[in-house]
Amino acid sequence: MPRRAFIADLQKAVDGTSIAGISNVQPGGDDGEFTFHCVAAGRTLEISALVPDVSEYPSNHPCMVFAGDDVPSRVANALSDISDSAMGKTIPQLLELVSRKLESTDRDGDKQMLDSQEDYGSEPEDEDDMEEEDEYFPDDELVARPAVGKQHNSVVPEGFTKPTSAFRNRIRSDLLVTKADGFKVGHLGGLMDGLSCYISVSCRVSKLGISEEAMRAWQVEPAEYLVVILHYPNGYKSMDSLRKYDPATARRNFEMRVGISTSYKPTMQEAVRAFTVLSKDEEKRREAESQTESQGATAHNGFRNSFISRPLNELLRERFPALLHYRYNGMPWHGAELFYNDHYGTNHHADLGLSDRYLELEQVSAVYPHIVMADHIQESMTQEHSLPLVGMQFVLRHFVRCTEFCLICFTKMPDDLQAIKPYVCENPLCLYQYMSLGFGPSIEHEILSQPKVVDLLISFCYTTARSGSLKDFPTGLSLMVPPNVAYEQDYASQPQSTYPGWNQTTIQNPRPISNTVAEVPQKVRYNAYTRELIFDDPPHKCPFRFGDWLVIRTADSPSQPFHCRVAETAYYPTVTISEPVKPPIFDPSQGYNAPYNSSVPQPPKPVAPVPPNEFRTASFYIYNQNFDDLNDFHKRETIHALLDLLPSVADMRAYLVRKAQSPLGSWVDRLSPAVLGILRWIIASNRACIVQVDDDDETSMQPKRGEERLYGMSGWAQFRFAMGAPDKERRFVQAVRDTTARLGLKYPTLYAWHGSPLHNWHSIIREGLHFKDTAHGRAFGHGVYHSLDVNTSIGYCGYGGNSVYTWPMSELKVNSALALNEIVNAPKEYVSSSPHLVVAQLDWIQTRYLFIKSTSASLQAPATTSAKETKPLQSIDQDPNMTPRGSSDKLCIPFHATSGSRRQQTRSVKTINKRRKATGLTVYDPIDIDAEEDDDKMSVATLEEDLIILEDEDVYVPEPEPEPLPTPTSLKGKSKAGAFLSKLVGSKSSKPLTDYVPGTLDYSSLPMLAKPTWATQAASKRLLKDFQELVKVQEREPPHELGWHVDPDHFDNMYQWIVELHSFDPTLPLSKDMKAKGIKSIVLELRFGKDYPMSPPFVRVIRPRFLGFQQGGGGHVTAGGAMCMELLTNDGWSAVSSIESVLLQVRMAMSSLEPKPARLEGSGRGEYGVGEAVEAYIRACNVHGWTVPPGFREMAYGGYPNDGSAYMY
User: Fold this and answer.
1) Which one is catalytic: 203, 461, 892, 1124?
2) Which is the most buried residue in 33, 353, 680, 880, by most CB within 10 A?
């Protein structure tokens, strides 16, 4: 595999290399990065190399080589050239190339010899040829160079696509087909010109048939758009072209990204950012920000990642091209995915399409809208398939139906697993990748946004583990935990199970397992005052390393262990540890069933005395037991023992607020990796949507929680609760409609209680309600048991006794849990309707609320009566004969407890008689997904630039350019309608509207530069593209409205542009001065560096001279002629800025009257020199605190950094 080859080559280089001048090769901080030392320019330099995409190693991968800012310019230029020619080179080849290019020598002064296996002889000629081809010749067409390197027997695409009429018609056809299928289409970049471009395909979330509960769990709103961005870096590619490519070639010419936005298309900045390769840490941080923004009080108005964007983007990149190949061999999507998984990592593809199991049509039990289930490849009547449409349909398959697939291997999950959130399959490797790659929810975000829900999840898991009922474990993460003998004596008198289920026996404590971990504690002496360990008879080597965790017991308090992190081993046999973490002390006097930290008032604890400064006898165990090697009993014991060490959720939240930029894992002295891994697993494996209903919680980020509070359950904490697959609500609604129509029901549904012991809830929120296991016997038949009386269900919560193990650090102190479910109101069709409601049809049941009874005095309601409760302003009409009763009164269920498409307009504060169409703007007002009308009236209006491509089918419509910003002369006395008509029919006046005449500038009088030696291929291509776009705008717009001019006939050096500004507003003082002196234009020079477009151009005035600021001048022109604008510094520049926008803003700055208008100098001094412009630019940056771009002097002086200064910026 490519990654394995990269790791193997890197390890060989780390172990040692014989390349002259190369040493100390080390892995870097990011994936694909490594560093090494190289002797060059008389000193040892540290150089970094980065392979952004190791999946293409070692054949077609790009490679970037760079060093610090303090390296000599010759070295920096050489490294830039190396990056251009390092495509496809292995790590040893790259190191040899660096050694040769930098003329590096070893200790004996020998240079690197050429590898006889590599053909380096022709490389300089190849590079010269490449440089010649990058030169710009105005009369020549841009012809792509043939690709060099390994071909893989595939068709190699051209660098750019020639925009023929057939090419443009195919684009138009593909996009029209996509739009006809119900999607919105947008584009960015040079789509119709065959250049790099983006296409966006989007659909409103409200049209996807996703339940409100799923939207809430997935952190999306009905009015938002699911957006797929398709990037074509080398011009648009049709499905026919993509089918001819191998996967590696396809990835170089076509990529996709998935996200959520309030608009149907992203901005150019958002599109570029979506395809920017980030480090793992930066990607996790950006995703955490997206999750925070999606649930925050302030709406996010741009493109952001969805909760499933990272795994979907990985699926699209790694598998989509191969899956398309399988589709065209006759397989449906599920057959292609099955074939891929069966043959992953092999080359046995001879049986493509021959096996029936790959050709069978998929049987989908869920009821989804047609837009989700459509298959363009199968349904199309022609062989011309739209790639944007097929890509969007594939994304919908895995977005809407995400809970049906494993998030890592994307195999189908068991059909009986109903969950509202996606997860991974039972393969331990998938769980490991899911956790290590950060595909799960951000625990930091969950703790900050819903601290009480996190408390609830931990409490459920703790109780389940302590009671011996936990059956699923974080296996595959290789968590290093203490050996079980380190703490099992602390729980020896507490059996794991106090509640045997129906016809079950209590779990017996098995004999401790034997493993490779030493079971004898190691002796040491411990000083509690200095937090130091000392070995009296030290082993030859320290038995642990820095960062390891220990369990320590002192001889004078053997029953009170503490856990700590090794902080310092440099002075072994004396070792320093972190502040001890002590688990809560179990009080035998209260019995093992009493909860820790009981709410019974306790006397204040005395201040802990200062420990004596002396070493005392102690023993320790190391966290060196692999959790995966334990049996199930000891896995449960380990989980609840480590959760005893977890700080309270309030403490973790306080830490995250205090350390806003740090993850929870940075709390290294308080949280061991094992504890953090278990916490992450508890949060990530929750597959239900739980949101606290708390109208007085200031920390809540959820809106409208007060509208969801149910009346009649005083003294119980309330949570909105949803389980089941994303289409579960749709199936439930369909069952309600069918039954109502069949039985003529006045009240289609009823609400009833479901109670279950506390130790069952950890599995309930992961598996949903079912009746596969018999817990209490089934005297009234098989099904899910419900009751209309809360006291009956409370009895089932404590079946077998009132003993409950409570997580010691819990704020909730959960004692009981109840679910309130909505059920189809057909009791005669239940398995039993008396004394319990026993429902066997799972599609007839939908969870709505979760109620928690707390033993914490601070969280209990002050009264047990309904006097303190307030009935909701809008409530649901219930069947009078089937109304459930709560703890304090009959339940009054709020209007928002049921799905929006079924809400009744009764008992409202204001009765709305007029029928209206749902807007789909919130979860409380969704669009009816069964309605024939679409939601175009409520959609974001499609921009004209996206409509114009689709409307004209016969005549080529060039890509619409953005309207230029208004100039002082273009809007004066002219309406927008007039400007539009003048463009449409032309001006009837023959009188010229400007006195400027193009082509009169004498270029021989200007300081023209030769092409710099440090020119890079990437910058040259971008500059060429930008110049061509500028010329197009100039040819299309009238000169008097444009206000600037470039001469393509004098474009000899793409790193130096000469631009004339003209046709200023005649009322400006600058325009009057120009007229008085007979000056027709302001001559500007733009100089570009090798880092363009990441760094801004240097813009200066050549002539005429302006009056300086100190002499009363303005116009943002410095005394040396440089433009004084933040836009032209690193602080204000954006890589997506166009040169047209730069010229417009420079022109507007010169036309500005604030603080003073621009004026021309009265003396006869000549034009500005580049030296004074450079110094003036740097002075302006220093005055305003702006950042000077790196390498500015070298760029400004055309590659000669010593002109004017001996140092670089």
Assistant:
1) 1124
2) 680
Quote the CA–CA distance of 1191 and 1168 in Å, as a whole number. 22
For the record, the structure tokens of 448 come out as: 């900050």
Q: Yes or no: say if 286 and 306 are a contact pair by the CB < 8 Å rule.
A: no
The string of DSSP letters for 1126-1149 reads GGGSTTT--TT--HHHHHHHHHHH
CA distance 565 to 576: 9
Q: Write the CB contacts of 203 (distance below 8 Å, at least 6 apart in sequence).
A: 182, 183, 184, 225, 226, 371, 392, 396
DSSP bridge pairs for 38: 22, 45
Number of C-alpha atoms within 13 angstroms, CB side, residue 1116? 20
Could you say which DSSP state residue 665 is in? G
Strand runs (DSSP E) across 918-957, as ranges? Answer: none
Least confident of 86-95, 276-285, 346-355, 696-705: 696-705
Q: How far apart are CA 1057 and CA 1048, in angstroms?
A: 10
Q: How many CA atoms lie within 13 A of 1200 on its CB side?
A: 10
Amino acid symbol at 850: L
Q: Verify whether residue 1124 is a known catalytic residue.
A: yes
Percent of the chain residues past pLDDT 70, beyond the cut: 75
CB under 8 Å to 383, separation ≥6 — which residues? none
**One-letter amino acid identity for 464?**
T
Tokens read off for 1002: 């004498």
What six digits make up the tokens of 833?
Answer: 């309707």
Residues present in the chain in total: 1209
HSE-up of 1035 (CA within 13 Å, CB side)?
A: 8
Query: What is d(CA 748, CA 727) in angstroms, rounded to the nearest whole number?
Result: 20
**Residue located via tokens 């325009």:** 1071
Distances (CA, A) of 596 to 160, 627, 646: 69, 26, 14
User: Residue 691 is inside which H or E element, if any?
Assistant: strand 689-692
Q: Can you tell me the distance from the alpha carbon of 511 to that of 488, in angstroms, rounded to the nearest whole number?
A: 11
d(CA 938, CA 394): 26
Backbone phi, then psi, for 565, in 5-degree steps? -105, 140
Query: Which residues, other chains included, contact 1067 with Cβ-Cβ below 8 Å and sequence gap of 6+?
Result: 968
Query: In the numeric block, which tokens belong to residue 1040?
Result: 């008097």
**pLDDT tens-digit series, residues 608-639:** 677 888 899 999 999 999 998 999 999 999 99
Rounded CA-CA distance 27/39 in Å is 19
What are residue 1051's phi and psi, to 5 degrees? Answer: -100, 80
pTM for this predicted structure: 0.56
Would you give the DSSP letter of residue 533? Answer: E
In whole angstroms, what is the distance from residue 754 CA to residue 841 CA? 15
Instruction: Report the 10 Å Cβ neighbour count for 1028.
Output: 16
Look-up of token digits 């952001």: 304
**pLDDT tens-digit profile of 683-741?**
888 878 888 886 444 444 444 455 678 888 888 888 888 776 666 777 888 899 899 99
Residue 652: per-residue pLDDT: 93
Going from the C-alpha of 716 to that of each of 473, 648, 817, 857, the distances in angstroms are 30, 21, 9, 12
Q: Between the CA of residue 458 and those of 224, 334, 686, what are the distances in Å?
A: 32, 37, 11
Composition of the chain by helix, strand, coil, percent to 5: 35, 15, 50
In the numeric block, the tokens 């289920």 are attached to: 501
Pull the structure tokens for residue 1171: 């030296």
pLDDT surpasses 60 at 501: no
Rounded distance, CA 525 to CA 532, Å?
A: 8
CB atoms within 10 A of CB 706: 14
Nearest to 320, CA basis, from 337, 338, 345:
337
DSSP-based three-state secondary structure for 435: helix
Question: What gap in Å lies between CA 315 and CA 344, rounded to an integer?
Answer: 13
What residues have CB less than 8 Å from 462, skipping those under 6 apart? Answer: 639, 640, 643, 805, 806, 807, 810
pLDDT in tens, 856-902: 655 554 433 344 678 887 888 889 999 999 888 888 988 777 765 55
